[in-house]
Each structure stands twice: as structure tokens, then as C-alpha cells.
């Protein structure tokens, strides 16, 4: 086996698969590489927290990407349950408001779990935002929500790599920027429109790169992970 690149520790592989067996096969292929695994809504709907212990025993760090959005008490109580599992990172929508974010931070931090905010989904454009009654420009909305998240005590935000440089200039050095929409040079974009290469996203200030299909749909996922850096 070739030696793992230390930058793999910045990669969160999105396990967007339709069965527990596929998720386990990917975890086995990636074990020991240093990367994180991301459990999203689909896998959570299939397996709940069942795979958390298995993945932790295999040595992975875990990001549970459920993007919670509810009244502060419901979010706080749900996070209490999630933090009792062995996940390392969770997330909530910033638009749930300051109180929701502050209470989320208060629950997660004593449990040693990082909590991120989702600012504006990258699937939404200016028109979508206006239709919802938001008057701000997308970039301004992203920055404002990220500043509010930082004030509320969140550890970071999920954002497009396109916004990473701007956010990095406005937020503390330790504030985490987790960026999806990453594609190795020359690989298929799939349905991602604005893509960054892994190296460019790190240069722009990303702390972690969320990468799904370029790794999960590769014949050899371990090799695809290693080839992010060549
Ligand atoms: O396969 P791909 O690399 O496009 O997967 C990206 C992952 O990041 C998916 O799990 C997707 O849900 C997630 N994501 C995204 N854009 C966002 C937020 C999350 O692509 N703005």
C-alpha cells in the first residue's frame, strides 16, 4: 500500500450511497488513509447512528451532516442525543437564528463535538433568495450569517470554496470553512456547477474539503483519494 498523504486528513468523503453494505465497503477501502467520513441524510435515513461505532472503531473521524433547522429547544435536545454518539462534527442551519446557534454550541462543546452552520445552500441563487423574501446579495448573506455564527460560538460554516477567500478574510483564523464542490483536475463535474480543485480550495482558505462522487464512484476509491494530490 502506498503511503497516505497528510492532506487526506482535510478530506471528508461523502458517503452518499443507497445501502449499508456500500457504505461499509467504502469505509473498508478508505481505512487507514487519514480521511474523514461524512454521513449525510440518505445514509442516516437508512441506518441512523448504527454505523457510527463501526466507523469509529475503524479509526475514522465522522461528520454527521444533518443540517438541523428547528426551534432552539428541539435542536438542543436532538444535538444532546447526537453528541452522545461518537461523532466528531455536526451541523445546523444558521437561519435557525442566534439563540439556536448559541444553544447548539453550548451542547456540543462540552461533548467535544464541533458544530458548523450552513449559510446559504450552494444550490440557491439570487432569484431563489429573493423569492424567499431575502433582500441581500448571496455573498453578503453568506458573510452576515457566518459572522453571526462566529458570534454565537459555532466552530465554522459550510460554504462554497468560491466564498472561502472572502470568508477567511472576515473571520478568525481558527474558524472552520468546510467546502463541498471539489473536483480533481480533469474529473467529471456531475451536477456541481462552480468547482474548485482540492489544492486550490486549500489555498483559498478551506479547512476541510467535502468530496463525494470522484471518490465514491471510482473503481478504486483509495487510489482516487491519493490522486487528489498529484
Ligand atoms: O459528489 P459530490 O462531491 O458532489 O458530493 C458533495 C457532497 O457535499 C454531497 O454530500 C452534498 O450533499 C454536499 N453538499 C454540496 N453542496 C452544499 C452542501 C453540501 O454539494 N452546498
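-> sequence recovered:
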Amino acid at each position: 500500500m502506498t503511503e497516505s498523504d497528510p492532506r487526506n486528513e482535510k478530506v471528508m468523503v461523502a458517503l452518499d450511497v443507497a445501502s449499508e453494505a456500500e457504505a461499509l465497503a467504502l469505509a473498508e477501502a478508505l481505512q487507514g488513509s487519514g480521511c474523514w467520513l461524512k454521513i449525510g441524510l440518505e445514509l442516516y435515513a437508512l441506518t441512523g447512528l448504527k454505523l457510527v461505532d463501526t466507523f469509529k472503531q475503524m479509526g475514522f473521524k465522522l461528520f454527521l451532516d444533518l443540517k438541523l433547522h428547528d426551534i432552539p429547544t428541539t435542536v438542543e435536545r436532538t444535538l444532546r442525543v447526537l453528541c452522545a454518539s461518537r461523532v466528531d462534527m455536526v451541523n445546523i442551519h444558521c437561519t435557525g437564528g442566534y439563540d439556536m446557534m448559541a444553544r447548539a454550541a453550548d451542547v456540543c462543546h462540552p461533548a467535544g463535538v464541533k458544530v458548523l452552520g450552513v449559510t446559504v445552500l450552494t444550490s440557491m441563487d439570487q432569484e431563489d433568495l429573493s423569492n424567499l423574501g431575502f433582500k441581500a446579495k448571496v455573498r453578503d448573506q453568506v458573510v452576515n450569517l457566518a459572522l453571526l455564527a462566529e458570534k454565537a460560538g459555532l466552530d465554522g460554516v459550510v460554504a462554497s470554496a468560491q466564498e472561502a477567500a472572502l470568508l477567511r478574510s472576515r473571520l478568525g483564523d481558527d474558524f472552520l470553512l468546510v467546502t463541498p464542490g471539489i473536483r480533481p483536475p480533469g474529473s467529471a463535474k456531475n451536477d456541481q456547477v462552480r468547482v474548485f480543485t482540492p489544492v486550490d480550495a486549500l489555498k483559498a482558505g478551506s479547512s476541510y474539503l467535502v468530496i463525494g462522487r470522484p471518490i465514491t464512484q471510482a473503481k478504486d476509491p483509495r487510489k482516487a483519494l491519493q490522486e487528489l494530490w498529484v
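The chain has one domain: 6-229.
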